[in-house]
Specification:
By secondary structure, the chain is mainly α. The protein contains eight helices and no strands. The protein is rod-shaped, with a radius of gyration of 27 Å.
Length: 190
């Protein structure tokens, strides 16, 4: 969970300063500076825009927009998959923890029934197995419930961030292709 709080962070994955600079470079058609920016500031945004910048060709129709969009889309899929791998670990914990708790419940109940089978029926004889069952069940739930909550929290957060990355990358591609022209005042406010 701590890793996801650090890694799946809007400011880290989609830095506004990088986007503003990227828009300025695209507006001035300075692809080399834009690519260097993407290489020097590794973020999800830079990893999506960088491959698109390699496909820019101002001699082709719309600066080779189709290839830029394809490269950005492929990079977006790779980056989302890479980030989602860590989020999915929370789902693994959320699924396995209650199962381990259930296993402890079963072994605790087996221990209690073994006491009964041996002719020991006093509460103190059964308490050990029942205690094991309850402790392991509670332990599994203490791990599983927060893990499930944070799995959905980070999954939704990642989806939202990647949507913003895609939107901003598409905007830069539109500027490079000439489909969006920005006045100086508009470029500063983006």
């Amino acid at each position: 969970m701590v890793y996801c709080f650090v890694a799946v962070n809007p400011g880290r994955m989609m830095p506004k300063t990088s986007h503003h600079s990227m828009v300025q470079f695209a507006r001035h058609r300075d692809v080399n500076a834009a690519y260097q920016l993407s290489e020097q500031n590794p973020s999800a945004y830079a990893k999506v825009v960088g491959p698109a910048l390699l496909k820019v060709n101002f001699e082709r129709d719309h600066a080779n927009k189709g290839s830029m969009e394809q490269a950005a889309g492929d990079a977006l899929d790779r980056e989302e998959t890479r980030q989602m791998a860590w989020v999915n670990y929370l789902n693994v914990f959320a699924t396995l923890a209650p199962m381990l708790g259930l296993l402890g419940t079963v072994t605790g109940m087996i221990a209690s029934f073994d006491q009964l089978a041996a002719g020991r029926s006093e509460p103190a004889d059964l308490a050990g197995g029942i205690g094991e069952a309850m402790i392991t069940t509670a332990g599994g739930l203490f791990v599983g419930i927060p893990a499930m909550f944070f799995y959905f929290f980070f999954k939704n957060r990642l989806t939202s961030i990647m949507s913003e990355v895609q939107k901003n990358a598409a905007f830069v591609i539109d500027i490079l292709s000439g489909e969006v022209a920005l006045a100086e005042d508009d470029a500063r406010s983006v």
